């Protein structure tokens, strides 16, 4: 079996002695300390580039970013931008020959405007911190990736991160009004605006969102905030099997209801929670639904009406404490799986109507490969996280990647995508052309070259 | 005073005799009939290129589009894509030297999928027809530009059209999942997907939306549909002046309410309606608010609570007929103004907090210039339509454009944009660099050149 990943050192260019003014080794935030370099080598993808980056620059200001990029552009030095390093696709992995530009100290919330329902932030702000600052005004930052307590806004934007509430409130893209960006050659631009609407010029904001550090370095963002719903209602349902749970999700859609959250756990997930000592009632699948707004209670009753005939049992939370208990089952999934071994968290999406088919196909891949795969899904938008669990000591070997490849192939066959919200990074480049097609793939490479003719921004990633 | 518009013939290249295979004059849809050419010369912007296009091709298939573009690319012939010709910025205006590619016959609704809540359509579908097809499944196409009964989906996508419901449901971009596009050289690509989420590759879908026919020709679209709300509630309020109405809109935002619709009419609008014989109660400003969903009635009561202290009178519609009566006032605005003379419908947006300032500044421009300007605004998203009314026989002369220029300058000074939902077209190119800045403007020209190196797609427009 051939190895499907790119070679272990994706950055071919060696870092030459800093040369030509302005160099960046004079910056206060520059270091080639071994521990700092080692700490900037990995993200949470499980991919190891096999070596440490040559240096790390912890930016203290936008001027620092400009200095680094100007020098990198002049010398052809690969730059890997890093926030909190919580990415799951290898987008911030950095090996020999590259310099890591760490933006985690650019972490000011510059402004929260309740009148315009927006915030202006630096990229290193932790997502949950922004949400907390907004909450003081009855507002929230809607995108809620599972990593929100540890990931940065800049990383969220770079990957177009999703989360549980996407079903109703959209992904990160839908909350980004404008960006401040340092281009590869050190020039600065602002995209978008402080207004909700605006169509002057091309949508560069959308182009930067999800571009995984390949088109420019985001040094500021104007983000849309939304009202905290006056009321949220929570329902949990247990089913005989995942087909019944998927049918319930489809029935909610068919009833033209619009939950804010619709999370599905399959049998393998529930088994792992049980093994971990959780108190999940026996059952083959679990669905958690939340509705919100002025009509949350009426809408959750409508959800119950369509789910109940398909479920083994249904429960609506009577109060916040009860809701937290129901949410705990959803939250217990990943930790329970992590107890069983090293996990590879995958991230495919399919049209909602193919959800059951996808979960079943993935269970088949698990059975054939002998690899334990548990699936959690954002059912409201067809986004599945098949989680491959490797028993203790097992590495991400060719056999594991072959199974992952089968999962990706399944998503594409069902009219879906390789990645719903984590990004392509290093891990999925191998399959990207299959999804995009040759013409689109080539066109995207040409676009990349407009922004970064020297190829210094995160080379070897995303495309 | 210098003329601020580009010269009257924006397409410099003359159409040579069709040469080189495959030519397009052999296509069944090709014509150089004088009446057909004259009919394809203008849109609704009021801009006249001073001559007719050289030919019109009414595409009967995607292959026709490919043939036209391949030939145009090979011969350097400018191509102006046209749907229903309802654009308000001159984006489809076509003069001598250009060929008009008319997509209005590509008008099939290919699929409506209630399970995936999406539709697949050809670009010539009338927006209201799609909405009607969706309604059969309890769904709707959310974007509702005022032109929806006559404009096409392709045109809506090309301009990233807005509408009344944008405040809650977003603009056209937010309802486009994927596109089928013929590139300038005749190659075809598909962007996006049938899934709600997906981050593989750059967001080309977003780049095409709003690109005004300059990056490729959209021949198919996969569009998101949304549930028809179970209930819509309607409130109308009359105020002493526009400042009070804007304060009420701000109070709704401050109360963290989220209307689906929030429309404001200023004093000049109400005066025009009264002159036209409308039965508007006397008052200086009008605000129409709709809430929707399971909690529509509770939310409209919350709206009333914050609006009432600022208003002269407030009315909540008791039933659909009463709601229609309240909506009639909003709908009466433009027809009443059109009775008074030729209108130039402008389209700026400002941050919501600057709405009152913008309306007041525009009234000042009207007073100084002596030109009657009435403003209707989508108050929920800060999008203003100042409507310049020219008395009978008056042309769009330099004095009028100077006043329009002052309106644009006001929007930019308040942190807003030249165009919220109509596009740049020909009319706003003069001011675009002021909004985008030189670096961004140049970058966008480079992007355009990647898609259209020969400059045949709608040259002289949009950028």
Automatic annotation (TrEMBL), chains A, B:
Flavoprotein found in the keyword field: yes
Domain FAD-binding PCMH-type: 49-228
Top-level taxon of origin: Bacteria
Cofactor(s) of this protein: FAD
Transmembrane segments: none
Stored InterPro entries: FAD-bd_oxidored_4_C, FAD-bd_PCMH, FAD-bd_PCMH-like_sf, FAD-bd_PCMH_sub2, FAD-linked_Oxase-like_C, FAD-linked_OxidoTrans_Type4, Oxid_FAD_bind_N, Vanillyl_alc_oxidase_C-sub2
Record region (Disordered): 1-29
Alphabetically ordered keywords of this record: FAD, Flavoprotein, Oxidoreductase
Name of the protein: FAD-linked oxidase C-terminal domain-containing protein
